[in-house]
Amino acid sequence: MSLRFRINILVTLLMLLFMGLTTLMQINDIKRQVREEIETGTKVTVQLLSIFLSSAQLNASISNKQLIVKNFLEDMGRIRAHEIQMINNLGDLIYVSPPSKYKAGRDAPKWFSELVTPKTQPIIIPERSFQVKIIPNVSRSILDSWDDVRDMAILAIGFFFLLNVLVFWIIGKSLSPIESIVEALKKMSQGDLKTRLPDYPIKEFHSVTEGFNHMAHAIESGNLENNRLALAIQQSSDALFITNPNGKLDFWNPAAVNLFGYSDEQFKKKNIRILASKELQVEIDEDFRNVFNHKTRVEYETSRKSRCGQNIEVFVQVSPIIEPSTEEVLGALFVLRDLSEKRNAEKAQRELTKNRELTILVQQKLEEERKALTMELHDELGQYVTAIKTIAQSIANRSRKKDPKTFSSSTAIVSAAGQIYDAVHNIIQRLRPVALEKFGLSETLKEAVDEWNKIHDSIDFLIVTQNVSLSNEAEISLFRVAQECVNNSIKHSQATKIKIELCQGSREFEIQLSVQDNGIGISIDRLENPDRFGIRGMKERMQSLGGELKIKSSPTTGALIIASLPFGSEKIS
User: Fold this and answer.
1) pLDDT confidence tier of residue 517, bands split at 50, 70 and 90
2) What per-residue confidence (pLDDT) applies to 377?
3) Which residue in 117, 122, 118 sits closest to 96, CA to CA?
4) Helix H or strand E segment including 354
5) pLDDT of 92
6) Quick check: helix, strand or coil at residue 327?
């Protein structure tokens, strides 16, 4: 049964109880009024007749007195609610008062009359030859009371039904928010945590609404956090275990299954100690001692065994799970991180370091060979070419007029020797610029730019430099980067302007070399395949000296390559 009907039934029962008590009080009041009225009327009637009979006795004979009294009674008729009878000594009824004309033909229901009629006794006034009998008759008073009660009952019944309807409507109107609340609770129970209640004007329901919406928001937020936490646990690469205080497994995530080779069924009812070999059980005992002391055992490196008995190197962290209100230890959280990837990364790093060292060594040897070859070309081949050119010039001078053929041949030798010398000079510049050792990086770059301007007259070269102090390895590496960038711009970028800048970088203790062109930029394919564009070589040169290489490219603004090195960069060995 709904609350609305229960309240309505309760109101109805209270109203019926009130009406019953009111009716009982009214009946008692009617009985009292009728009794008082009869008693009062009886007293008046008795006094009136007594006075008249006394007066008649003084003024008339016995025979005339009976006649006088009869005539008096006939003239007087009924006295209020009393029936008057006159009876002679023989018992004959001489006179009886006429029936009441008040509401003639109607009487109150018998049950009502019996309920409210008081107990009355007729009063007899005796005389010598007759007696006067006064009989109280309450039928008219009872009829009046019945009419009043009936009218009141009709009004009460009407009021009763009207009040019931009104109460039913008011309760329904007042309790209408309950339907919304119940519906909202149903939606919440079905998982719709975004359910919210509107604000109700009734103070009590307003408080319920605030409480419900606050609860719903808290549940939604908590559920969201729980879902995130569950996803984090499920997707974590670390193996997670939750145990009770005795070490029995209560929870494990998929990473734990993958790492140790146990299925979900095989983990059930097992103890965390199954993951440790006999000699390492003391570590788990130590873990639980920390747990019972409300302490977290921070990461320590150890090994745990898989289902097939394989030892797995792991980091272990153990934290207690504590009930905040009682500080009771509910269990422990074990986080086990596989160190295989770390070991592989360390191995790869060692191999990379060896490769870099090998690359540095190769570059060092290559530079040394270039230097030696440069010196050989400069000191040996250069001198021989110069000697050939001098001898040929001398022959040409002596045979200018004497032997035209010899003159022509010697002149050709002089020209060829000059070309050979220029070619050797260019080779020396490409192998290792002599100016780099004599004048430093800034001057060498300026000299290289002058050469590039002579060779590539369609490209405008611009150089901005500052005097910087770098090691020989750093200078030659930056010069090689500049050479590679300029060559690539000339070959691939379709640039008309190339700017080279050597300066101190934005960070303290840093040297930057930047090469920027206005060409079509570097394609994604070449950036993703650095072997094809000399990019890997430039990066390795910078990394070997503790620096870095950055590349910015756009089809509209061209390419910008920035090589950065710390001051006083030395070769990493």
Assistant:
1) very high
2) 63
3) 122
4) helix 340-376
5) 83
6) coil
| Closest among 82, 146, 150 to 114, alpha carbons compared | 146
Give the pLDDT of residue 572: 40
541: nearest Cα among 551, 549, 533, 531:
549
Q: For residue 547, is pLDDT > 50?
A: yes
Both tokens of residue 502? 């050597």
Distances (CA, A) of 72 to 48, 63, 516: 11, 15, 150
Least confident of 67-71, 405-409, 503-507: 503-507
Beta strand residue intervals within 120-211, DSSP E: 123-126, 130-136
Give pLDDT, residue 484: 86
pLDDT at 573: 38
Q: What share of the chain is helix, strand, coil (3-state, %, to 5)?
A: 60, 20, 25
Q: What is the CATH number of domain 438-573?
A: 3.30.565.10
- Judged against a pLDDT cut of 80, whether residue 497 lies above it is answered with yes
Length of the chain: 573
CA nearest neighbour of 108 among 30, 4, 45: 30
Specify the CATH number for 3-161; select among 1.25.40, 3.20.14, 3.30.450, 1.10.4030.
3.30.450
Order of strands, edge to edge, in the sheet holding 460-465? 460-465, 497-504, 510-517, 558-566, 548-554
Question: So what's the pLDDT on residue 318?
Answer: 93
Which pLDDT score, from 0 to 100, does residue 334 have? 93
Angstrom CA distances, 307 to 263, 264, 275, stand at 10, 12, 8
Whole-number Å distance between alpha carbons of 470 and 564: 12
Furthest-apart CA pair in the chain: how many Å? 222
pLDDT at site 58: 62
Two tokens, residue 351: 């191999």
CA–CA gap between residue 181 and residue 177 (Å, rounded):
6
Distance between start and end Cα atoms, the chain: 90
Q: Mean pLDDT, to the nearest integer, of 86-102?
A: 81
Question: Three-class SS string for 527-554?
Answer: HHCHHHCCHHHHHHHHHHCCCEEEEEEE
- Please give the order of strands across the beta sheet that includes 311-322: 249-252, 239-243, 329-338, 311-322, 297-305
Question: Do residues 113 and 142 make contact, with C-beta atoms less than 8 angstroms apart?
Answer: yes
Residue 409: what pLDDT? 83
Q: Say whether pTM exceeds 0.70.
A: no
Beta bridge partners of 252: 241
**Helix H segments across 77-138?**
110-116
Report the b/e string of 468-482 with b at 16+ CB within 10 A.
Answer: bebeebbbbbbbbbb
Cβ proximity of 297 and 256 under 8 Å: no
d(CA 132, CA 238): 121
pLDDT at 4: 67
CATH match for 236-338 among 3.30.70.3270, 3.60.150.10, 3.30.428.10, 3.30.450.20 = 3.30.450.20
- Name which of 205, 209, 272 is nearest 242 in CA terms: 272
* CA separation for the pair 573, 557 (Å, rounded): 39
